[in-house]
Amino acid sequence: MKNLWFLIVFLFVFKVYPQQSDFSHIDFSKADRNVLACKNENLNNLPQLVDKLTAGLPTDVERFKAIYLWVCTNISNDYNLFLRNERKRNKFQNDSLKLSNWNSQFNKTIFRELLKNKKTICTGYAYLVKKMAGLANLNCEVVHGYGRTSTTNIDKLEAPNHSWNAIELNGKWYLCDPTWASGLQNAETFEFNFQYNEGFFLSEPELFAINHFPIEEKWFLENTTTFDAFLEAPVIYGKAYKNLLAHTTPKKMHQSITKHDKLTFEYVLLKPVTQKEIHLLIDNGHHSKKVKPTSYLLKGSSLTLEHQFNSKGFYDVHVYFGEDLISTYTVMVKS
Amino acid sequence: MKTHFTSTHDRFSLKKLAKTTGLFGIFMIALLVSNPIYAQTDKASTNEEITVKGVVKDEFSQPLEANITLKGTTVGTSTDKDGTFTFPKELKKNDILIFTHLGFNTTEIKINEKHTFLEVTMGTEVVEMLGAPEVDKPYKSKRNK
């Protein structure tokens, strides 16, 4: 019992971020080479592809990495397919029969598209990762839920819109998002660009939960949040996963303060960032201004920023580390 | 009075116990004796090599172009357009063939002597398709103009 209390106290005092660091001793260069060697492979023979990708890799995490990375860097996101599906799903939202008919019809389209053109939408990524991991005897699951990005209707997400993966390695579950790791969609041209983001591989569950809300509670893996808290959370971007271990404060996207008050931002960093690199982009609806936060404090890996707002108004506040857009908040400044 | 009652009860259950353990003992011995015989037939049949042919279809009996691999190896083949295949390697009893196809449940089949022609039906995998693509476009508040 004494030990248990000790453990509890320990957990509260020292926050540990173990996900990727569980495997910091592993050199993934061999897995990366296998992925490059399979660059032009197609999906006609999955068992053979999985064999090639995992050849000579001794650990499960390397074997999984090779499969996951191949999917992320070889399968592209089909925005038209996404739009078509979203339209129909919204249309049939309250008609379960029509929705399930649409689903089975769309399923066929999806798999044809995946096989022929190596294009899909996010469930396709998650499904393929699971299917290929299964062929390598790895225990991988598809997780369905809500994904929150800057362009989704962020204040009210009505229906599940995203899928990702959970993978069991050495008896412990981890989270990955192959769709978002794969690349970015240009919202204007609908064009997809491959741009692999390592941050979505074995992500920190707490950071992940800011913009991933699983339908099944167990896939939070750690602390669960409520759906309301999820909808109120700040918008974080893909680049946040490259720079942060945790987003601590503010917990809510919409902030309200009085003139000359300070707003505090707190993060736990994955890698050090200098004061010079940090700036805020403050947008009042007419124009945006690049400013330095009023104060910067780095203590170990914890970063605290403060910013004082001196004029009344309503602002979109974007936090940047260098070129990387990390997060957005709205601030109502009253007199 | 009470003790007497218990002792008869004890004696009764002991007898019953002896009877059951006796039966169980005979059963155990029977198992031990018969086991080697099983093992021998097993051994005989594992040496036998089986050429496996077959056809793969979906649930609507349409031929399916699936991949087939021998579990634990890289030996494999694919079905022809009409769904038929001949496995390139002679198989033994208890070998497992894995049938894969995108969008269909992966199916495993254990080979026994009777399995020289396999008729495999693969069921469609029900996947609810969702998709929110990743964007790095900064969030913009909707404002009243």
Automatic annotation (TrEMBL), chain A:
Source species, domain of life: Bacteria
Residue ranges annotated for the Transglutaminase-like domain, each copy included: 114-180
Gene Ontology terms: cellular component: cytoplasm
InterPro entries, A to Z: CAP/Cytokinesis_protein, Papain-like_cys_pep_sf, Transglutaminase-like
Pfam families tied to this protein: Transglut_core
Name of this protein: Transglutaminase-like domain-containing protein
